Fold this sequence. Notes:
Layout: E1 3-6, E2 13-27, E3 35-44, E4 48-49, E5 54-67, E6 85-97, E7 103-114, E8 126-136
Antiparallel strand pairs: 1-2, 2-3, 3-5, 4-5, 5-6, 6-7, 7-8
Amino acid sequence: MRFDLPLPCEGCALRRNRIEVGVNATQFFGGQTNADIGVFLRLRTGEVPLVSSLAVNLAIGIGVSHAFDRPELEDWGNRGKNRRTQIQVPMEFEWSHAALRERSVLAPRIHHRSGAWGLVAPQGVGSNFIGVGLRRSF
């Protein structure tokens, strides 16, 4: 189902938006080496045409993320108080080209995990990772 979101200017709208259910699996390398899985609802804008058949859309979601090991970089001064299950807020820009309809580039993709201001973990626990991804649609 696609829908339009009106903007405050006359006749303006973000067109062909959709709500998605998403699942992502992530493996971290370097200072934090755990894996996690997340399930979320996401709002994605319709394609915004740019130049030479290039287009972009934006997405933001909210859901739950579970780390399979304790994520060491999420303490932020609360040593040992991080939690394996936290709120996840994924955000991304998806870039596509008309010649490559089934493939797109996600850049940047922000992987945010937090305790939601103390709701599921102490305040000051969480992380933000910026990544790049490739997506293939089926």
